[in-house]
Batch of 3 targets.
Target 1
Amino acid sequence: MTETKRREFLRNAALTVTGAGILASTAAAASALSAKPGARRILAINGSHRAGMTCAAGLKLVLESAKAADPSIETELIELAGIDFNQAVVGADQPDDALTPILEKIKSPECVGLVIGSPVYFGLPSGRTVSFISRFMPLKRAGVFKNKVFGAVAVGGGRNGGQETILHALINSALTLQVIVAVDGVPTSHWGATLWNQDNSIEKDDFGKDTAKNLGTRMVELITMACK
């Protein structure tokens, strides 16, 4: 091969490689533009010792309202009453048990919203709820809660049965996680959903049900802003 032909061959080869690179980049860009955005999910955690009862009903109202506000958002209710998990020990290795997959769900970027519900126990959240939150330490240290939207639900045996003390406790814990706290929106506008358990039902509590619905709507409003 003469020197002239060798140079022409190298030039053509370079042009072919460059063209392939441009086509590949263009294809990658087109693929990125056409790719669907990741799923967005709100997880609801029921800290009641009784699965499927009034606390679960309140959380379902939150999720239904969120879904109505934005049908593209996925929702899931998790009942802690059916899960056997160990206590966290500060400064020690965290347990690896049935709660671990749930914590992984919360850790996932797809989880953009978290709402925790608890009944009132002497003005405090249930022991199951507190034990659950205590397992957040590794996630907190990793910063995975940052800018997730958080909501709280409380159920008591009276209209003024201590629900707001539960909301305050849950929100105080959540603020250490760098979450965005959602309150129930107008016209109720309190610290979250406050529900009244009457004969193991919340059906008669129209005001309380409205707070749960407003909370779900407000969570979606904040999620929309946070995900922009």
Note: The CA atoms of residues 84 and 98 lie 6 Å apart.
Target 2
Amino acid sequence: MNEPILNSHNKAEYEPAHTAEHILNKTMVNMFGCPRSRNAHIEKNKSKCDYILPECPTDEQVKAIEDKVNSVIAAALPVTIEYMTREQAASIVDLSKLPEDASETLRIVKVGDYDDCACIGAHVANTADIGEFRIISHDFNDGIWRVRWKTLAIR
């Protein structure tokens, strides 16, 4: 169950972690007003995301990030896919990471009413399928906060 699958680029993706990344990204945008992660590496055992921030989050803020991501997961939100034109998508998602060769019709992944993101990846059907989100470590260098995290399987 929840084994990594290959996406259209033959990249293995672990659905719970990929969906957790969407929740983490939205949480960072909401808490810090920063852009979504521009550099992410998502795997089953450990993942990382980089965020542009003016300073390193405090220990209390790191705990608040982890708590918020886990509260969204616990809310058992449906994860759905909707297709729309770029023009329609531009009013609800940030298209700045969109490759130049992307089609006119975009695939938007919605995590309940919490997050909307243009994405071609694999996701769980419900946030309750993610398990627990845990921040393992983090560091701050030259305006980049790198956070390493994992999802713990549902027991």
Note: Residues 15-32 form the longest helix (18 residues).
Target 3
Amino acid sequence: MDINTRAEVLIQAMPYIQKHRGQTIVVKYGGNAMLNEELKEAVMSDIVLMQLVGINVVLVHGGGPEINYMLDKTGKKSEFKNGLRVTDKETIDIVQQVLAGKVNKSLVQHISQSGGRAIGLCGLDGKMLMAKKLTTAEDLGFVGEIDHVNPLIIMDSLKNGYIPVISTIAGGYNGEVYNVNADLAAARIAGQLHAKKLILMTDVRGLLKDVEDENSLISVVKTTDVSRLKKSGIIKGGMIPKIDCCVDAVQSGVSRAHILDGRIKHSILLELFSDEGIGTMLY
């Protein structure tokens, strides 16, 4: 890239930086961007740059592959029902150890190495995430449904100049520990913080008219159109819970919710600071 092109990129980004400065943006991080070290470095540098230009960034993460690895290592089989992990007492102990420990602290360290200030938190801290047992046709064990979000510890972290890095372990009202869906947790946190944006990073371009054609991306969706898109079969399968999380966030007061392809390097910056934008935006 020559000097003039670089200057044009910076000039193009300036009004977006001004627009987002002082706003809160919640990023849910997972998928391939979490497994690939090169992509991980790109995401962490994006997060740090956002903080440096004055955005209040909250990073919410999952860690399914790491949990699977640790369960395999201990000789315990991973079991799923309707896309949800069956979580018995032994499994929830491993989930808590992996998410709130190894994965969370690794992300904090990556942010620090990229020049940012981060603090590792989980839903148990300050009773941030309170949950009840998720009731389904089949017993899933310690899988929870978020009942309440207390954002105080997140707000205090932001006020003191830290990027909160949150693992999605929730507390029960009788001392239980629950595994909760990271997308939903991010949406609920964004709503409680009155965030400007929610960004869900995933492994697809966004919502596609044809799942076999990545060029069939639907760039903008109104929440009032979601029901029609479900009936027509465009929103289906694993995209349903992600879209529902976005709708939940928007209905809770978040201005915009975005589904971005985490396989694209610097996808967050491309969405926030360029004219083109990528992925699917719900409003």
Note: The chain has ten helices and 14 strands.
